[in-house]
Structure formats: structure tokens, C-alpha cells
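Let us work through a complete example step by step.
Step 1: write down the sequence.
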Amino acid sequence: YFAQFGFGDWFQSATLLSYFLSHPDAIYGVTWFLVPLIVFQLLGTLSYGLMRRRELPCCLLMTVGFMALFWAVGRFPGCFGILSYLQYLPVLLSGCILYWYRRECFSRKSAGMLLALTFAVFLALCRRCSPDRFSVPESIPLQFFWGAASFIIAMLLDAQKPFSVPGPMLLLARISFGVYLGQMTFGALVLDAALKLWPAIPLGLAILVSFLLTVLIAAAFHQWIEKPLGAFLASCQKARRYEQNTSSPGELRKKVSQ
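Step 2: predict the structure and record it as C-alpha cells.
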């Protein structure tokens, strides 16, 4: 399967250019979610100062920003394909709303109003960008609704009686995004090899092996890349905060070197 792709295909896939050029990625078909994720992180970086102090106005500002971004990108006919990926920005914002509510940054009423607003914006964007997937059985808004509802129910139950989560489940939670990104590549390689040997290798066994391989690769990525990178960024943020609170450059250099 992968032999059909040339260097240009792999380069566009690795840099996500295929999505911006309105060419769906056939190599890593699950990486489309990185497009709205990166855009969301850029918007979050621009509004980080407000986000730290005023979460509620920040949510409203980002919602307005989504609509403005869609209007601006929609002005260019050749960029309509990218809108089908950016329509998921309200989904990411709803995750932030649930996180801030969990940290008691605003009331339950405010969280409910913000979630309703993001859902309404998501409905409007889906109706424009994905009208073929607006109704059942593949309703994107319905998936978003039930996904958010399951999180809210779990949070309310946990507030009454905290859950006891097993260690393996916590590990899967930490590496879940890596599992999502790797399942179509590493899992597909194992399944492709197993299908060539079928019926010598049962399909159920091939699926199990492909899942375990994907989990192992995602765990290795988390241990050797995500965690060191996160620690490095945390140290940089700590040094920046210390620099803002001190007036002695020499003392700052000594603290950072330690």
C-alpha cells in the first residue's frame, strides 16, 4: 500500500500541506485533526495573557475569533477544503470549558451557557462545511453532543464520589492521542501483513497484535519525546516567570544553571 506514494506525497503528509492544498492525506488519514489543533494552539497562544486571568471573556473572544476566521478563509474559493477541518475548533474550546469548570474558574451556569454557545457555533459550521454528515447515522453534531454529555456526567459523578482509576487506564489516557495517530499507520501495517498470511493467522489475533503494537509505540513516544519536551517547556516557563520577578540578571543565570 505505502509503495504507491512518492517523496512528494510523504513530504506533504509530514508537513500537513496536503490538507491546506485540499488534497486529503491518504498516508496518515487520521492526522487531519492536527490542523484544527495547531490553529487552536496558535489562537490560544495569542490569547494566553487573557486566558490566565479572564477565562470567561477569553472563551467568548475565541468563539468570535472562530467565526471571523471562517469568514476570512471562506473569502478565498480555493480554501474551502480547509474549512472542513477548522469546523472542529469549537470542539477543542468545549474541552477547555470543561477543564476550567473542573478547576472552578467559573460557575456551572456560565459553563452551561458557554457549552451551549460553542455547540450552536459548531452546528452552524457543520451545516455549512459538512451538510452530508449533518444528519444521522453519521451526524457529527450528535457525536459532539454525546461526547460532551458523557464527560459532563462523569465529572458530576466524580464530584460526588471520586473514581478509582487503575494504572493501566491512566496510561492509556496519557498516550491516547498517540494511539489515535499511530493506529492507521502501525496498526495498518500489521493488519496488512496478517491478511496476506490469512487464514494461517486469525483476524482477531492480528487486530490484537496491531493494537498492542500501536500502544507500545505510543507509550515510547510519550516517554522519550512528549515527557522530555514537556519538562523542557515547563523549565523555560519557570525561568521566564523568575525573570519577570527579579531584577538581578546574575542571580537569574545562577538559578537557571542550577
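Step 3: interpret the result. The radius of gyration is 22 Å.
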